[in-house]
Design brief:
The complex is a heterodimer. Chain A contains four helices and seven strands; from the N terminus they run H-E-E-E-E-E-H-E-E-H-H. By secondary structure, chain A is α+β, with helices and mostly antiparallel strands. Chain B is built from ten helices and 23 strands. The chains are: A alpha+beta, B alpha/beta.
Chain lengths: 186, 420
């Protein structure tokens, strides 16, 4: 299935990804990563998270840029709307992960992309968070993702692309499967 | 100590096919068998099981099915008779009721191997492992979280629905084993929930012929390990969702859904008496539908090229099946205490090499081998999935693999004689 046509360029370095896969197969310890985020409360429901270092390939890694992400709640929640809501950032994580996957798999399969748009909707019953209805969960009841893709490929090939992207997606796994979360106070 | 040139461990289809190939070359050998010929088929399968391949496809070196039902599927008693007769007509030197306890290398294998059994010790120059791919039922670690009243069972222990308590059953895994057991247990009046991970969907018959006929005729089953990009992945592909039955019925998730089996996502956890299912059911079904359509497309293409669009018993036009019907909101959790009496782990099988004291296992306990040539002098393995070709784990694949590997083995012996 290696079908890398040199004319296809989605800006993904497939050779490097395949190389990394081979290297990490030989050295499973190097495949152990820890991702980090540090969040500071600003005011009200507004907080700011900064992201830089992570651990991987057997050592501490750092970036030249520290990314910052503001999160808040909209005015209908009596908040100041200084940033996207945390649940929208969860949708962002899923969207970006699936979209990156689509680009990578497309490159690997020799499919030239012209545009990819993912539209996400997360359905939520607020009676959960507000403690009105104990049967309603806090989180999403369902998440719906719609991809609009313009590319040189059949409808079947595009469906396969999106399916494979979900199969290999970290955030799709995080959202669809339970994860132990340990929170402590120091 | 008894001496022979080659010890074959296991008298199933693979061991017997290798024995036949070695006999043809006059290579002195013995086949050590812990029980009787076809022991796993005799003792480790559920009552209703039939082969997934039609009778005509049971072909071994110098031996083939000659009964009057070429399109039927053998039950276990018939498989045992079939292999018993093969051992007889080939005069295979089987030493039954001989369990191998320990294999150690002599001079790192360069001088052969010592094979300790409960019936004495053998010394051999070359060794063929034909003990099969399904010695141990693989059960995920989360099975350990099951509590109290729920009975936990593997397909190795399961024989028929009658041995299960009345009440709900959670079948984990939707490959051939899982879908077959889900059907018969549900039909016994025990409501089944089926946890579905990645699976391979296939119709039993396509355009009037058995899917295995098409896969054989179109060369799909003969695909060589050399032609596959990622052989590690190919060797892990689960079995096709198939059943051998008189009706030649398709047993996919739509058929199970119509019977009333509840479909859930992959079992992701067991926590405080609750089963947790993945929210990925839609995607694993989409992947399986797409993959099935690619298989059917390659069959259609081959059929057109080979002139099969114009054969009386073959439907002239391609057929596409309904997409898998996934519940609108699949269950993400199931309270085991109220709903489930038995969990059946149809989560795959793995080989047992606990008797093999030769450093040839990788960190996951798998044999290190190159298409059956094990990473130790003069050692071979047969009967593993996609060992040398897609059909390697089928009865029909044992012959070609045994022919190839007996070539290699004979070459190894003659090199060694030249050096000596």
């Amino acid at each position: 299935m290696t079908n890398v046509t040199p004319t296809v360029d989605n800006g993904v370095n497939v050779e490097a990804l395949v190389g990394a896969r081979e290297a990490l197969t030989e050295m499973p310890a190097a495949a152990q990563f820890t991702w980090r985020a540090t969040c500071n409360w600003v005011n009200g429901t507004h907080s700011q998270t900064s992201i830089n270092g992570f651990f991987g390939l057997g050592e501490e890694q750092s970036r030249e840029t520290t990314f910052t992400i503001d999160a808040d709640h909209p005015e209908v929640f009596a908040s100041e709307d200084k940033g996207a809501t945390p649940v929208e950032l969860v949708l962002t994580g899923l969207a970006s992960c699936l979209t990156a996957g689509v680009a990578s798999v497309a490159q690997y399969r020799g499919i030239q992309l012209r545009s990819v748009k993912a539209i996400l909707e997360g359905e939520m019953d607020l009676q959960g968070i507000l403690g009105i209805e104990s049967d309603a969960r806090n989180g999403f009841d369902a998440i719906r993702v719609t991809f609009e893709i313009d590319a040189d490929a059949s409808e079947e090939d595009l469906k396969a692309l999106v399916a494979q992207s979900q199969k290999r997606s970290a955030v799709f796994d995080i959202i669809t499967n339970p994860t132990n979360v340990f929170v402590e106070v120091k | 100590m008894k001496k022979t040139t080659t010890v074959i461990i296991g008298a199933g289809q693979a061991g017997l096919a290798m024995s036949r190939c070695l006999t043809r070359r006059s290579i002195d050998h013995v086949v050590l068998e812990r029980g009787e010929v076809a022991n796993s088929w005799r003792t480790e399968r559920w009552d209703s099981l039939r082969l997934l391949t039609p009778n005509w496809q049971s072909r071994l070196p110098d031996y083939t099915y000659e009964g009057d039902d070429p399109d039927g599927y053998m039950n276990m008693a018939e498989v045992v008779r079939f292999l018993d007769r093969y051992a007889q007509v080939t005069a295979a030197p089987v030493q039954a009721k001989t369990r191998v306890l320990n294999v150690t290398p002599v001079d790192d294998g360069r001088s052969g191997y010592q094979v300790v059994t409960d019936q004495g010790t053998w010394r051999c120059r070359t060794l063929v492992i034909a003990t099969g791919a399904c010695n141990i039922a693989s059960v995920p670690r989360i099975a350990g979280n099951l509590t109290g009243h729920v009975q936990s069972l593997t397909p190795m222990q399961y024989r028929n629905p009658g041995q299960l308590e009345e009440g709900g059953v959670l079948v984990v895994g939707a490959s051939a084993t899982g879908v077959q057991l889900a059907k018969e247990i549900h039909e016994s009046g025990r409501p089944v929930t089926l946890a579905v991970g990645e699976h391979v969907r296939a119709p039993r018959t396509y355009r009037g012929r058995d899917i295995k006929w098409w896969m054989d005729a179109a060369g799909i089953l003969d695909l060589s390990w050399r032609e596959v990009d990622d052989i590690g992945r190919a060797r892990n592909v689960p079995s096709l969702q198939l059943v051998g039955s008189a009706e030649r019925a398709t047993l996919d998730l739509n058929a199970l859904g119509d019977l009333g089996v509840r479909l859930a996502g992959r079992l992701a956890g067991i926590h405080e008496g609750k089963a947790q299912f993945s929210g990925s059911l839609g995607n694993v079904c989409a992947l399986a539908d797409l993959k099935m359509n690619r298989l059917l497309e390659s069959i259609d293409q081959w059929a057109a090229e080979a002139g099969f669009d114009d054969v009386p018993d073959v439907s002239p036009t391609p057929i596409r099946f309904d997409a898998t019907r996934v519940p609108e909101r699949p269950d993400l959790g199931l309270d085991l205490k109220d709903n489930i009496r038995t969990v059946l782990w149809a989560t795959g099988y793995r080989p047992d090499y606990s008797w093999l004291n030769v450093p040839v296992l990788d960190r996951r306990g798998r044999l290190r081998h190159d298409a059956g040539v094990v990473d130790a002098p003069g050692m071979y393995v047969l009967g593993l999935p996609f060992l040398r070709r897609r059909k390697s784990s089928l009865i029909d694949g044992a012959g070609d693999d045994a022919r190839d590997l007996s070539d290699h083995l004979a070459g190894y012996l003659s090199d060694w004689r030249m050096a000596a």
